[in-house]
Amino acid sequence: xxxxxxxxxxxxxxxxxxxxxxxxxxxxxxxxxxxxxxxxxxxxxxxxxxxxxxxxxxxxxxxxxxxxxxxxxxxxxxxxxxxxxxxxxxxxxxxxxxxxxxxxxxxxxxxxxxxxxxxxxxxxxxxxxxxxxxxxxxxxxxxxxxxxxxxxxxxxxxxxxxxxxxxxxxxxxxxxxxxxxxxxxxxxxxxxxxxxxxxxxxxxxxxxxxxxxxxxxxxxxxxxxxxxxxxxxxxxxxxxxxxxxxxxxxxxxxxxxxxxxxxxxxxxxxxxxxxxxxxxxxxxxxxxxxxxxxxxxxxxxxxxxxxxxxxxxxxxxxxxxxxxxxxxxxxxxxxxxxxxxxxxxxxxxxxxxxxxxxxxxxxxxxxxxxxxxxxxxxxxxxxxxxxxxxxxxxxxxxxxxxxxxxxxxxxxxxxxxxxxxxxxxxxxxxxxxxxxxxxxxxxxxxxxxxxxxxxxxxxxxxxxxxxxxxxxxxxxxxxxxxxxxxxxxxxxxxxxxxxxxxxxxxxxxxxxxxxxxxxxxxxxxxxxxxxxxxxxxxxxxxxxxxxxxxxxxxxxxxxxxxxxxxxxxxxxxxxxxxxxxxxxxxxxxxxxxxxxxxxxxxxxxxxxxxxxxxxxxxxxxxxxxxxxxxxxxxxxxxxxxxxxxxxxxxxxxxxxxxxxxxx
Length: 663
Ligand SMILES: *[C@@H]1O[C@H](CO)[C@@H](O)[C@H](O)[C@H]1NC(C)=O
Ligand SMILES: *[C@@H]1O[C@H](CO)[C@@H](O)[C@H](O)[C@H]1NC(C)=O
Ligand SMILES: *[C@@H]1O[C@H](CO)[C@@H](O)[C@H](O)[C@H]1NC(C)=O
Ligand SMILES: *[C@@H]1O[C@H](CO)[C@@H](O)[C@H](O)[C@H]1NC(C)=O
Ligand SMILES: *[C@@H]1O[C@H](CO)[C@@H](O)[C@H](O)[C@H]1NC(C)=O
Ligand SMILES: *[C@@H]1O[C@H](CO)[C@@H](O)[C@H](O)[C@H]1NC(C)=O
Ligand SMILES: *[C@@H]1O[C@H](CO)[C@@H](O)[C@H](O)[C@H]1NC(C)=O
Ligand SMILES: *[C@@H]1O[C@H](CO)[C@@H](O)[C@H](O)[C@H]1NC(C)=O
Ligand SMILES: *[C@@H]1O[C@H](CO)[C@@H](O)[C@H](O)[C@H]1NC(C)=O
Ligand SMILES: *[C@@H]1O[C@H](CO)[C@@H](O)[C@H](O)[C@H]1NC(C)=O
Ligand SMILES: *[C@@H]1O[C@H](CO)[C@@H](O)[C@H](O)[C@H]1NC(C)=O
Ligand SMILES: *[C@@H]1O[C@H](CO)[C@@H](O)[C@H](O)[C@H]1NC(C)=O
What we know:
The protein is mainly beta. The protein has a domain at about 500-663: Alpha-Beta Horseshoe (Leucine-rich repeat, LRR (right-handed beta-alpha superhelix)). It is built from eight helices and 48 strands. The protein has a 26-stranded mixed β-sheet. The chain has a ten-stranded parallel β-sheet with strand order 29-31-33-35-37-39-41-43-45-47, with no helix packed on it. It has a five-stranded parallel β-sheet with strand order 7-9-11-13-15. A hairpin with a 5-residue loop joins strand 2 (about 60) and strand 3. It is globular. Bound molecules: 2-acetamido-2-deoxy-beta-D-glucopyranose (NAG) (12 copies). One 2-acetamido-2-deoxy-beta-D-glucopyranose binds near residues 505, 526, 527, 529 and 530.
């Protein structure tokens, strides 16, 4: 059966067929020796027995029965040199393992065509000999633990047939030498997230077949070269005639965006974000018909947005955020952007001037236009965007009621909504029709009426910021059942009345509670001490009375406690000495009494930077221990009933500047 099959398939024997061959005895021996170095906790190598090693897990052979492929994952241990005995090994894939040192003898296996050692826990120097392997076409050492190489050395080698080179997320350093332009078979080069520095050699323009170039997250400096060397060697009118993907983001590149970018017609993705580029966006970019992603955010580009960008009919990702763009944006800018999904225009001074019945050609999922001028009316075109889930219209000059259709048709799919810093008015619907785990920021508007609650959510950790509005009425008693997993709650600076619901204690993921500057009454519920992840508790400037609950001493992670400007009475509970993360303690403007406790300086509070106890009725002598607060920068004890002298030790506050004493 085996023999017949072999005869029929003849020359065209496939890999699977070849596994029916018996493997070379010498290769079998080499593999068994290789296995002795491996750690195999999940017994993945249990099939490695019997005479035919071509049938073992991860092994394939050529038609002569010689091992041609070794493809093993989820192992640990050592890569033993017995691999060098596999004379016909072409494809070595040891990615996703937990090995240690990169073996330098790998480069002795001259038959190798592809080598994938990505994500395999390797460290050490990348053997320069890889560049001399005569048949090597594919090398990935992506994301290991601290593989190092000096770029001038590594790229001065021959790299005769190298086609794909992926060295991302390692520790390459030094400058890219101009000899990189000799690697003329390259189609794919990824050096992202290394420590490459210096300029980009213009010889890269000689890589006529280069499709993918990513050097993001390095320390490249200088301007984008014109790659003119390339136009000659590639017999092309434009530089980099095959380039489809160019990512040089997160470097320190300077200068203007070159006009030639608009000539690289094959470009599908262009990411130059987070550099130091300045000047205008060239209108020529609008002729890149295949462009699907354009990311220029986080530079210093200025001027207006070219109308030609509206011709980019394949564009799906459009990011020109964090710039100094000015001028008007109208329908023409989006004319043919049928496929736009991500629109990031935020942090610019652009002014949107579209007609009130504009129907954008796209259905965007993410619309981020914070700080662009969109008002004064609420943008009606948003009603056409049925798939939007991320919406930032903050600081956009909108001075209007939120239309009913926003809550009926748009908001329920949102996982992020930021309309802060506008002049939005009217009542908010309750329940707020929004995705359960959404981050919602409606702060700094003119909303009025009762506090709305989003619908009950399972997921969480989210943000609800309703601060600086004109909301009134009490905090709903059932806020905890509506928002059991909320992480950040800010209701500051409204006109909220009534008591703080005890149910806060069951919102166990809260990290920030800010109810400051309202008209809250009654006691601080002890149950807040059950919010065990709380970092910030701000109840200042209300009308709270009663004692400071000792239970608050349970908040191990609390960094900021503002209770100032209330009518709290009694003594400072000694349990507060357990707040070892505390940096700010503000109890000023209350009716607290008693001596300043000794423990404030003695135990636990070494991170305290700000201590304000002003305008209370504290009495007795100042404890000299206070000066042990080695991080203290601001101490405000004014307007109390202290007597005696200022302890001599107060000269010793380590972090204080002379002006920080406020009496
Ligand atoms: C690899 O080649 C070098 C030089 O040719 C030689 O010294 C070394 O012993 C070889 N290593 C292995 C494991 O074959
Ligand atoms: C490689 O590039 C360098 C600098 O660009 C050049 O001087 C050298 O002749 C090239 N070597 C080969 C073998 O092409
Ligand atoms: C980048 O290079 C500059 C100048 O050579 C240096 O000051 C800076 O520390 C480098 N940054 C990183 C992240 O390596
Ligand atoms: C644009 O993309 C299409 C389809 O992928 C392709 O056929 C065409 O060659 C590309 N244009 C250029 C200039 O690369
Ligand atoms: C862009 O910024 C440069 C200086 O960085 C300035 O000279 C130029 O006038 C600005 N252009 C526009 C259109 O604002
Ligand atoms: C957008 O503004 C430009 C320049 O003012 C104008 O030529 C164009 O007609 C405008 N587009 C629309 C759709 O109004
Ligand atoms: C806004 O567009 C309208 C109609 O196209 C035009 O009349 C008006 O001048 C534009 N406003 C600004 C500030 O560009
Ligand atoms: C929510 O988004 C889905 C697609 O992502 C869409 O089918 C659905 O109509 C949207 N719902 C609303 C209320 O917009
Ligand atoms: C909303 O936008 C404002 C202004 O752009 C910003 O300060 C705030 O952090 C944003 N809120 C959230 C939750 O991201
Ligand atoms: C919260 O209470 C209000 C009024 O008592 C009620 O309408 C609402 O359904 C409650 N929400 C939850 C989540 O229990
Ligand atoms: C804190 O939570 C525990 C367990 O749920 C509960 O028994 C206790 O009463 C709560 N403490 C306060 C002060 O609410
Ligand atoms: C504060 O609460 C007291 C009752 O405890 C009340 O008489 C007073 O009017 C309240 N003040 C404010 C500003 O709400």
